[in-house]
Amino acid sequence: MVVLKILIRNAFRNKLRTTLTIFGVAIAILSFGLLRTVVSAWYAGVDASSATRLITRNAISIIFPLPLSYKDKIRQVEGVKTVSWGNWFGAYYIEEKNFFANFCVEPVSYLELYPEFVLRLDARRAFLNDRKGCIAGRKLAEKFKWKVGDNIPLKGTIYPGTWNFVLRGTYKGRDKTIDETQFFFHWDYLNETLKKTAPGRADQVGFYIIGVSRPDLAADVSTSVDRMFQNSYAETLTETEKAFNLGFVAMTEAILTVIQVVSLVIIIIIMAVVANTMAMTTRERIGDYAIMKTLGFGGREISILILGESLVITLTGCIIGILLTFPVARIFSQELAIIFPVFNISSETLYLDLSAAVVVAFAAALIPTRRAIRIRIAEGLRRVG
Amino acid sequence: MEHKPPIAEIRNLHKSYRRGELIVPVLHDITFDIADGEFLALMGPSGSGKTTLLNLIAGIDKADSGVIRIGGTDITALSETELARWRADHVGFIFQFYNLIPVLKAIENVELPLYLSGLTAKERREHAAMALKLVNLAHRMDHYPRELSGGEQQRVAIARAIVTDPAILVADEPTGDLDRVSAEEILGMMERLNHELAKTIIMVTHDPRAAQRARTLRHLDKGYLNDGRS
Ligand SMILES: Nc1ncnc2c1ncn2[C@@H]1O[C@H](COP(=O)(O)OP(=O)(O)O)[C@@H](O)[C@H]1O
Ligand SMILES: [Mg+2]
Question: With contact defined as beta carbons under 8 Å apart, do B25 and B75 qualify?
Fold first, then answer.
């Protein structure tokens, strides 16, 4: 259709203006996409959590421990399949800025509960057989250039001193949403050491991880567990891993809200920019629209001309923005791997990018289209010359 | 053409514009006929309402009252959409500033009205090429308007006006922006269209030389029609 030909050529008639507008849209879409990805990276831990895992912690606060003796009692609760436990270790590697998630766990049950951490069979065996052994996520090992067999000294903060581990394997995430920057080792190693150095802190557990046999049992199991320890000196709070992680994320909810607002503001700003461009272009083309109407073309063709031009500009910008998002996100994910272990551009973000571009195109074309359709032909023709 | 009925009958036409609170009358009780095959020049000082009258006859503006019957159709009774269709079928337009679409080549500009005619792409191209040949611009068909002189652009506009083979051509100051030589050329072309293709031409002008080419002159003064020679 000739209308298509006209609108595409129109879009690139004023090259400087079009280029600048497209550039603006591209930058806006890039920022929008990155901000959305930050938000989803934040939630990635939540999404990855299993619906069949419960976390039991001290009801007062996560920083207070629970007795090791609870493990046998929890095992007896109906619906419980596996019980594992661990402590947040909070150590760093060489320098304090090399901080990452590290904890000790009961290894057999832990690996059973986390099948999403994919570990080779020989590595698994080596890890289980070595009480000083440890496992690191693939990304973490890459970052510090650790090889299997390396001695890894960590400096403790919660548990002072230098702790030496031997890397027995690295795990891979089963899919892209799995955090590949964690580090874990034998709970027994910590406990045995504490028995010698700080007996008062031994036999204490930071959290229990409960595997239930079916997701629908989760609510019942958590109620039973918490009821069991009611009125004991360490009361428990049991919630699904998802709820637990959400609680973690909730602390940063305010920041996430700000990020989301900012990403919307970016879209509104670019809407104003494109609307301005469209207002300028259509004002210049009032004579063209008038002659087309004179020749018998109707409001439909005029709308297609204007909306189409707006779409050409925003979608070109959007595609450039999306293409830029990938390399920039890769740099982000390399630089910020520890803060955002999972930093993937989701297809949802891409759809949001595209929808934002389409909404911007329509919004920007709305008023100019109305004006161009309403203006009387005789009026439009007088604007020429 | 002596006893054919007139192609256009204009009866008691009134038109005024609003300028804010003010209502400015522009045409007062205009009544006249235009014979089929006529070459009419509408003359008058600037602001006398020539363009307004031409727009009404060509169906791109609406009168306040009065009747315009063209080829038997009362175009004042048509809806916006019907009028658009009617224009596409019956009227060719030529303007002072050519009004070509700048992003379309000469041939594409000439083809433009044909998109509403249901012709195939090949037929459109052929018709447009023929119309361009008629105005001696076949060799310029792939040029954009900005690459053409004023006279050439006006010839493209003429080709666009005749490509749908309308019965009536309206021209608003078609030579107003041209040098003498180009103007003569355009006027000669319009004469030929009138003679050889029997187009009825209604031309607004205040150039006496242009008016001389016409067969009939009518004068408009402050919105009143003063009969000149008929
Ligand atoms: N859209 C409009 N609004 C108000 N006044 C108008 C408008 N269009 C034309 N006029 C006025 O109507 C009168 C006739 O205009 P026009 O038909 O263009 O005259 P001409 O073509 O003879 O120069 C002029 O006084 C002009 O200022
Ligand atoms: Mg005029």
Answer: no
